[in-house]
Write a structure and sequence with these properties.
3 domains
């Protein structure tokens, strides 16, 4: 096993371990995530890697056997010791969060404060352009709601002066409406396809031969081409 492979597996597993420790603590009747992290770091310091494995989530254990986990930890002794030390000194300010998926690939983030759950996401960010994927989801939402004015926000500057709300509406509800509706439905069905970005441009292939092209302008992602 190469050093690079061992380190990569260690980093991946340890990240999952921290998350799983929190989830396990909440579900096992412990006092909370801080207690779970304390138990996990204590097991690492004691080199009781089998006990640490018992704190992992079921999804993690389904992908990684106990023997693989113990072997990996033993092969990464220095990293494990450092991680145990950091967990012991920095776990006092744990923030418990949850994420709810809904709608057109939307997510709502919640945080627990003083024992009560509160919404942490911005509920007014209906048409985010922060990332290519968020821009595409926003564009699809605007189309579904016939918000032609909002759809203008996604037009690159070089085309913007030629577009109006009425022209946008005519383009999507004109003679080729059925064809465009089919394209938009296909895009919505493929919103989670991989997106590659390079500098100010990004691309998302979908279907057999189509591709959405994005352009970043003044910190906002816009739609350069849909097919």
């Amino acid at each position: 096993m190469s050093a690079m492979s061992s380190t990569a597996r260690f980093a991946s597993a340890l990240s999952l371990a921290a998350i799983a420790g929190i989830v396990g603590a909440c579900g096992a009747g412990q006092s909370g995530p801080v207690s779970a992290l304390h138990s996990y770091s204590s097991a690492l310091r004691a080199r009781d890697y089998s006990a640490a494995y018992d704190m992992m989530s079921e999804s993690f254990q389904a992908k990684h056997s106990r023997d693989d986990f113990v072997r990996m930890m033993k092969e990464s002794g220095d990293e494990v010791a450092q991680t145990a030390q950091m967990l012991s000194s920095q776990h006092k300010g744990v923030e418990i969060t949850a994420e709810f998926n809904f709608g057109i690939g939307d997510t709502m983030r919640l945080v627990q404060e003083d024992g009560e759950w509160h919404i942490a996401s911005n509920p007014m960010a209906f048409y985010s352009q922060a990332t290519p994927r968020e821009a595409l989801r926003s564009f699809v939402r605007a189309h579904a709601l016939k918000r032609w004015d909002v759809m203008l926000r996604f037009v690159p500057t070089k085309y913007r002066e030629r577009m109006t709300v009425q022209k946008m509406r005519d383009q999507f509800e004109g003679a080729h409406r059925d064809e465009i509706d089919g394209m938009m439905n296909m895009i919505q069905a493929n919103l989670d396809e991989p997106i590659t970005d390079k500098g100010n441009e990004a691309r998302m292939p979908y279907g057999d031969r189509f591709e959405v092209k994005f352009l970043l302008e003044e910190g906002r992602w816009k739609i350069q081409d849909l097919d």
